[in-house]
Write a structure and sequence with these properties.
This protein is α+β, with helices and mostly antiparallel strands. It folds into 4 domains: 2-38; 94-113 and 348-456, conserved putative lor/sdh protein from methanococcus maripaludis s2 fold; 118-128 and 265-344, Beta Barrel (Elongation Factor Tu (Ef-tu), domain 3), CATH 2.40.30; 133-263, Beta Barrel (OB fold (Dihydrolipoamide Acetyltransferase, E2P)). It has 8 helices and 24 strands. It has a 6-stranded antiparallel beta barrel with strand order 6-15-18-17-16-19. The chain has a 4-stranded antiparallel beta sheet with strand order 7-14-12-9, with no helix packed on it. Strand 16 (287-291) and strand 17 (299-312) form a beta hairpin. It starts with a helix and ends in a 32-residue tail after the last helix. Residues 267-341 form the CusB-like beta-barrel domain. Residues 349-409 form the CzcB-like C-terminal circularly permuted SH3-like domain.
Amino acid sequence: MKLSAKVAVPVAVILLAAAGGGYYLWQHQKDGAAKGGKQGEKTAQGQVLYTCAMHPFIIKDKPGTCPICGMELIKKVEGAQANAKELEMLGHVSLSPTQQVMANVATVEAKTIPLTKEVNAVGIVQYDQSRQAKVTAWVAGRIDKLYVNTVGAYVSKGRPVAEVYSPDLVSAQQEYLLALRSRDRLKDSPIASISQGGEGLVASARQRLLLMGVKEHQIAGLEKAGQPNIRLPIYTPLSGVVIEKVAVEGQYVNTGDPLFNIADLSTVWVEVEVYENEFSFIKLGQRVEIISQSWPGKTFSGRVSFVYPFLDPKTRTVKVRVELPNPGLKLKPDMFVNASVKVPLGSAVTVPVAAVMDTGTRQVAWVEMKPGMFEPREVKVGARVGDMLQVLSGVKPGEKVAASGAYLIDSEAQLKGTGGGHAGHEGMPGMKPEEKGAAPAQGGHEGHGGAPAAPKKNGGMSMDDMKM
């Protein structure tokens, strides 16, 4: 009985110890499983880190400001895709005041102002083709006398330029005088056909003289004199300047031979060559200012009278005809002149030309969202007026754009890896947002000077802040 009690006590102690150890192990495994589940859930959600959009190699585990540029840190979620706001922030570029001074970055406010497009072109003075004429021989004969012997002489419409002797013309005058005498004898005939026949003969002879170039007052003089004129004066159809002289005194001419070329220079044409990217601004009736080096300080004014319907393939220009008065005959044919056409475009949003970068496929402007932070904005531009560009869309009045240093900002964006304004630099397909903003692989530096700017005094920076 005593031996059984001695054996039973140790056995009970061992059983109690085993039960306690089993309970302890079960509880420890339960707590470990719960703690592991929470850690796994946190790992599945991804570790929340914060980085600088300007300096992506700055990595912190809590929000704050960048120790280099002072920009507010944004979330960088590993293992997950960034949201639209974070992607938009990654596309921005921030510059510290020191970097803006070094990069010569200056901003200009986009304003709505009235624009006037000025189209400048060169032109050549030409004869007004509607004011040119030829003096020709209306009958065959001999030039007995010339009143104009030199090119450049001024001739008047009411004064003769030459006298021609023509046997045919003398014969026609005699027939007319005979018809007049016949009409006077037959007009008292009691037979109506005979009295009317005399009138018909006079009308026929008169018409023949008119076709030979005889004027009405010359026919009246012929009737008064009663005998033919041996030499017939020749008149010009208009007043102007002799630009070509063919006739020589004593020369025999046939019907239709040219004697003189006459041009009225009181009005001239200027054929202006406008480049194909500007001729769409030219309209009929527009006022054109003409300036000639021969007359410094004097401006001639004319109107667009015609736009030629074809393009010169060699010069890539379209000819525009300008008609203008020429008082004092100051403008000479074949003279080179400068033409200027001012075309009002109305009120429009304008920015400096240097503020818009043309990548070949689109135009991009860097808009300042807040001091030091710039956003690339695709814009559509219209006409260029001096140093200003008409903005059709993309920039609103009052917004500030980088007027100088835009290309340096774009270079900063390229180094950052966000693509900037130039196409083809947006990163490889499938890259994560944080991979696009990663630091350069081998010794790359942000900024333009090759090294980051000095950290701010109120924001310390240590090597632990950088994820190399």
